[in-house]
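Posting this for the archive.
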Amino acid sequence: MNDDRPPCHAPTRALSVADVLALPVLAKGQPQVVTGVPQLDRPVRWVHITELTDPASFLKGGELVLTTGMPLPQDGAGVRRYVDELADVGAAALVIELVRRYHRPPDTLVDACRLRGLPLVTLAKDVNFLEVTQVVHALLLGNQAEAMRRTQRVHEAFTALTLRGAGPEDVVRAAAEMCGRTVVLENLVHQALICEPSGSTVEEALTDWEERSRATGANGRTTARGPAEWLTAPVEYQGERWGRVVMLPARADDPAPGPEDVTVLERTAMALTVARLIHPTPWERTAHRSALRDLVEQRHRSAEDARARCTALGLPADRDRFVAALVELRTAGEGTEPEVRLFQELRTAGVSALVGELAPGRLGVLLALRPSQPWRPVVERLCGLALGLDPRAVVTVGCEVTDLADTARSFREAARVAEATPPGQPRPADRSFHELSDIGLPRLLYALREDTRIQEYAEQQLGRLIDHDTQHGTDLLTTLRHYLDAAGNKTTAARRGGLSRETMYQRLRVVERLLDRDLESGAQRTELHVALTALDTLRGH
């Protein structure tokens, strides 16, 4: 495993009011929650012991306030003011000990806390408040130190990614692993280019992506946005914005993103900026390539994931007709120019497609067709564009399929046709592309030319004849070729070879003896014809 790959660090959950009440040092006081049960998940930032009538002036928010109740005002208005000030400053909870002044909380205090949503907790037994502060503060400081260590690891992980020139896929994957949330990179028109799900599927993350993404609005800083509390950060450089990176909750009940999530997303945006500057391939082309390769190799977790991903890239995956094509370019320009031009020309023509490089010199094109749109004219248009890029381009087409999940079959068929199309193969008379029906015996054997079984067969059938020609300076192989091409007609074969009939007969008898074959047998002639065609293919004829 690559050492630069960051491990997944689950953030330590903030200490809540409920957590503090469960600590043994407070539990022995028999705490009872009187009001604010739904607010017990409030984070506790600090513990504050007070016997003042105005403790709020010493607070900053998030404190668990401990008191014996001695400073509480006698009058109802004073109690309400006391509670209002605590609530306004954002105190986490009020804990009152019912030992010295009170044996039950005053009704005015209970009503005021309930009205302001401030958790009120009573202690039936004496508790050492100083010991409470020591224990809770030690936990809080430990959490802060661990948070600082995790933040440092985040910075180190992204620094390592940047130094080794990681691409955008690596960066997004690392972010998802570190935060345990789904991370998506989108472009300026809200197309999801890279999605790394965590705790969810691609389908769950990307369904209706554009609509949901637009609902979050735009912002120039890292912030939680929209009804779903997406955490977003812009990816930009020197005022030019390229897109944004989005962090989604893994589940609907996940807590809101915290400071560590913000740190991860900000570093993700920075790393993506660097990746954009050092990797010349546009993100859209990378996304199309990745989506096509996943379709070809059937790497999607489910058909629903495949449809959601392609839809988020702008391909109408709900259409019921798809055709895969391969474009072999031999003299095209370098980089992504051929992909960009093909995609733009198809889009201008109103054709929905994914276009991406599948291998050097080979572009994959997935066409999504409208119900009334015949595919052959669309592929002809694609051929015209490809030939404009490279006059020697070869376009091969697979079968039409009715489900996006079946496009791998169409791509496999197009690849088989490409494998059986030798360089310089003339295009069919009625069209500019090649399809499976064009593959006859010579092209089939061309596709299988590297199979040792084909090589062995050709040698076993014709090897002795070839050796005889080499040793004696004869050309019996050509004589056999004329005879087989003439379908066993000796007169025609003699004429094609410029030989007399007697010479032809004599040579054929020698061929039969060397090969131990009966040339009058149609089956044996077929075997020799296949072997000779294979030999021509192996020799590059």
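The first helix runs from residue 17 to 21. The longest strand covers residues 240-248.
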